[in-house]
Specification:
CATH class of the largest domain: Alpha Beta
Number of helices: 12
CATH architecture of the largest domain: 2-Layer Sandwich
Number of strands: 20
Shape: rod-shaped
Largest sheet: 6 strands, antiparallel, barrel
CATH topology of the largest domain: Beta-Lactamase
Distance between the termini: 86 Å
Strand order of the largest sheet: 6-15-19-17-16-20
Helix content: 25-40%
Length: about 450
C-alpha cells in the first residue's frame, strides 16, 4: 500500500475519533466527567504525554492520569502561575511552543515539569464558564493538522462544558460582567453617596435581655422563729384570703420548754413566799427577797416569751393573693432559722418585669426608658412597660455570668394581664444613633477587646 492510500485512511480514522469524542462529550452528565474526557481521552485524537485543563475561575482543575489534583502540590502551583501569565499575555487561540528555543534559565525551569514540545488551546468564555486553556505536551513537535483537530475538538467540548457548569452566585444575583463594566465613576460616586446617607440615618439603639414577670409589691412570708416546720397548709398557686393559715411549726419542743419554764416559775414563787414568811423573824431571809423577786421576773419573762412563740407557731397570710411556692415537701421536717424565706403571697394581677442586662448591653438609657416584653408563650402580643430601676452593680447569675438587674412597670391598660412566672425577652430602647453605629457596635467592641485598640 503506497503513501497516497495510507493518508486518506489516517484522515478518516482521525475524523472518526473526533466524532467519537464529540459523542462522548454529549453523553456526559457532569462537568467533572467532561474534564476527565478532555485530559485523558483526547490522547486517542492526538498523542501526548501530559495534559492539563486550567480555568480562569478555579485554576488547574484536571490533569491527565490523576483523579483529583492536589492544589498545594508544587507542579500545580507552577502550572497556575504559568497559565495566568500566558492567558493574560497571549491572545492566540492555539499556541505552539518549543522549549529548546527559550533562554537557558527558562529552559531549565520548564524541563523540570514538562516535555520540550507543547501546545495550549484557548477555551473562550461561554454562559457560566469564564474560560480557560488546555495544555498538551510531548517529546515530538505538533503538526498543523494535529493542532487543527485539537482546536475543533476543544471548540465542541467547550459548548457542552458551559452547559453543565453550575451557575455562579454573581449570575444568580443578576450581577453580570456587563453590568459591572457599565458602572462608571459617576454611578459609583452616586452609589457611594447613597450608601453614606443610609449609613447616617438615625435609628433607635436597642438591646435584648432575658426577662420574666415577677410580683409587684409581694408579701414575703418568712420564718418568725427558729424551729422545724411540721406541715404546709396551702398548695402552690392557691388563691387565699387574709388570715388563711399558711404553715405550722412542730410545737412538741416548744410545749416541753413552756412546761419546764412554768414549773420553774411556780417553784420560784413558792420559795419567795416561804422566804417572805421567815423574814418576819429571820433578818437573813429578808435580805434574799430582792434576789428571789428578780429570779421570778426572769422566769415570768421566759414563760411569756415561750407562750408568744406557741401562738406564733401557726403562720397566717397577711394579705389576699396567690401563693407562690415551688415545692411544699422541701420544707416539711426541715429546721429553719428566723427570717428564712418560705413562700410569697402576691396579687396575681399586679406584676412587673424583671430583666437581666449583660454588661456588654449596659448602654446609656434615657429617663423613662421604654421596654417591649415578648412572652415566649405568646410572642405575637408584646407587652409595653417603662423602666423603673436599674442596678448599679452587676450580680452573679446561676448561669455563671454577671448581669445587671432591671425592673420595669407595665403600662398596658388591658384588664387581663399575664400571670406571674412567665418568661420571655425584653427589648429596651436607648438613644438615637446612626445605622452604621447600630450595625458595627458589637463587632467593634469585640474587636477592641481582642486586639486592645
Amino acid at each position: 500500500m503506497n503513501a497516497s492510500t495510507r493518508a486518506p485512511e489516517s484522515a478518516e480514522a482521525a475524523l472518526a475519533t473526533l466524532v467519537h469524542l464529540i459523542r462522548r462529550a454529549r453523553q456526559a452528565c457532569k462537568a467533572n466527567e467532561l474534564r476527565f474526557i478532555l485530559v485523558n481521552e483526547s490522547h486517542a485524537l492526538v498523542p501526548y504525554r501530559q495534559a492539563a485543563f486550567w480555568s480562569c475561575a478555579n485554576g488547574v482543575e484536571a490533569l491527565s492520569g490523576v483523579t483529583s489534583p492536589e492544589q498545594q502540590a508544587p507542579y500545580i502551583q507552577w502550572l497556575n502561575r504559568w497559565f495566568k501569565a500566558k492567558h493574560v499575555a497571549t491572545k492566540v487561540t492555539v499556541l505552539n511552543s518549543d522549549l529548546n528555543s527559550l533562554a537557558a534559565n527558562q529552559r531549565d525551569e520548564w524541563a523540570e515539569w514538562l516535555p520540550p514540545y507543547l501546545i495550549t488551546i484557548d477555551i473562550p468564555a461561554l454562559k457560566n464558564f469564564d474560560g480557560g486553556r488546555l495544555l498538551l505536551a510531548r517529546e515530538q513537535p505538533f503538526s498543523k493538522a494535529e493542532m487543527g483537530l485539537v482546536s475543533e475538538w476543544v471548540d465542541a467540548w467547550s459548548d457542552q462544558y458551559a452547559t453543565h457548569t453550575p451557575k455562579r452566585l454573581s449570575s444568580r444575583l443578576g450581577v453580570t460582567r456587563t453590568f459591572k463594566q457599565s458602572l462608571k465613576w459617576p454611578i459609583r460616586l452616586c452609589l457611594f453617596a447613597g450608601l453614606t446617607i443610609i449609613a447616617l440615618l438615625p435609628v433607635r439603639l436597642t438591646v435584648l435581655a432575658p426577662a420574666e414577670l415577677v410580683p409587684l409589691e409581694p408579701a414575703i412570708i418568712r420564718a418568725p422563729m427558729d424551729g422545724i416546720i411540721d406541715r404546709i397548709l396551702v398548695e402552690p398557686n392557691q388563691r387565699i384570703n387574709v388570715g388563711t393559715p399558711l404553715f405550722a411549726f412542730d410545737t412538741v419542743s416548744l410545749a416541753s420548754r413552756l412546761e419546764v419554764a412554768e414549773r420553774s416559775l411556780n417553784t420560784a414563787q413558792t420559795e419567795y413566799r416561804q422566804s417572805a414568811q421567815r423574814a418576819l423573824y429571820d433578818p437573813d431571809s429578808k435580805s434574799k427577797l430582792s434576789v428571789m423577786q428578780s429570779q421570778i421576773e426572769e422566769q415570768r419573762v421566759e414563760v411569756n416569751y415561750l407562750r408568744t412563740l406557741n401562738t406564733r407557731s401557726g403562720v397566717v397570710s397577711p394579705r389576699a393573693g396567690l401563693v407562690i411556692l415551688d415545692d411544699p415537701s422541701a420544707f416539711v421536717g426541715r429546721p429553719v432559722m428566723t427570717g428564712e424565706r418560705i413562700m410569697v403571697v402576691a396579687d396575681e394581677n399586679k406584676t412587673q418585669i424583671e430583666a437581666w442586662l449583660s454588661p456588654s448591653d449596659m448602654i446609656q438609657f434615657p429617663k423613662q426608658t421604654k421596654v417591649t416584653f415578648y412572652l415566649a408563650a405568646d410572642p405575637i402580643n408584646p407587652i409595653s412597660a417603662t423602666v423603673s430601676y436599674i442596678a448599679h452593680q452587676p450580680e452573679l447569675r446561676p448561669e455563671g455570668n454577671y448581669a445587671y438587674r432591671l425592673r420595669a412597670q407595665l403600662t398596658d391598660t388591658h384588664n387581663e394581664r399575664p400571670r406571674v412566672g412567665l418568661k420571655g425577652t425584653a427589648k429596651l430602647f436607648g438613644d438615637e444613633v446612626s445605622i452604621a453605629y447600630w450595625i458595627f457596635r458589637r463587632p467593634w467592641a469585640a474587636l477592641r477587646g481582642w486586639i486592645g485598640i
